[in-house]
Amino acid sequence: MSEATELLENMEQAGHGGHEEHGPAHGPATQGTKPLAKYVGITMAVLGVLLAVCSAFVGATRTELVTTMVEQTNVSMRYQAASTKFRLLQANLQQMNALLPADPVRFRQIGQAMDDVKLTGDAAAMAGMVRSLRDQLLMTVIPTTSDLKRFVEVARGYKEETKAGYAWKESFNDAIEAYENAGEHYEWGMLAAEIGIVIASIALLLSSRAAWLASITLGVACIGVMAVTNLHARGELRHAHQEIEEARANYHKVANEERAETADEALFKSIEAMH
After folding, report:
1. Whole-angstrom Cα distance, residue 132 to residue 120?
2. Residue 52 lies in a domain
3. Residue 274 DSSP symbol
4. Residue range 169-180: average pLDDT?
5. Are 65 and 176 in contact (CB under 8 A)?
6. How does 135-152 read in b/e, with b if 16+ C-beta sit within 10 Å?
7. CA-to-CA distance for 198 and 91, rounded, in angstroms?
């Protein structure tokens, strides 16, 4: 932007210098070039404004792009956290399941046979001790059904949260792509305006009407690029942000944190109640 401003100032100074050199010496010949110089100067000013507007659009688009990418990163961290929790719970559930009897029916039959043994004297006392040790061992090693159901419930909750988090993360892709494309197209408009200023300066120096018309064409192209890009980007971003909001709402709907906190508090209280 500063280079374009310096170029404008240099060209205007060159134009004024050219008019002074061709002043009284050329007489009527300068009368045809003065209106053209005035129009070229106006064209350069308009192109400078277009360049500034395109630059503002590029800056705003890049800012929104960075903001959207940061939001996607934050959502991605939530997704990774939920996925990690789910995998840990799944591993613990698999480990607990491995502690269960391979043949539950046979396991109960063996226990019942031990309970049915009838002995007297020291043998009966020894059998009672063995049964007590067996019961204590089973209580401490084999997980209870309530523990397994609790693990399954929490794991399913984090599984749903992981899926919703992934969908929320992926919903940002369309918005990011729209911002990238819009920024690139606005840069095309900037390029057209910059080239138009250069050609207009040549028209001012050489009093070339063809060069002046070429600079006007580039200015019109810059306006067209800005208008089309703005309309297209607005439509795409409206749809993309709608998808993001829907994915966000779905994630918070299935988020497992509140349910996990309630269950954790119940676990804490049950442990504190132990003697």
Report:
1. 17
2. yes
3. -
4. 94
5. yes
6. eeeeeeeebeeeeeebbe
7. 67
Regarding whether 198 and 174 lie in a shared domain, the answer is yes
**Does the pLDDT of residue 26 top 50, yes or no?**
no
Instruction: Name the token pair of 178.
Output: 């729209």
139 CB-near residues (< 8 Å, 6+ apart): none
Question: Residue for token digits 């100074």?
Answer: 13
Locate 155 and state its tokens: 């794991």
Residue 76 belongs to domain spanning: 2-95+144-267
Which pTM value belongs to this model?
A: 0.67
Say yes or no: 75 and 186 in one domain.
yes
pLDDT in tens, 181-223: 999 999 999 999 999 999 999 999 998 999 999 999 999 999 9
Q: How confident is the model at residue 96 (pLDDT cuts 50, 70, 90)?
A: low
What tokens appear for 154 in the block? 């929490």
How many CB atoms lie under 10 A from the CB of residue 220? 13
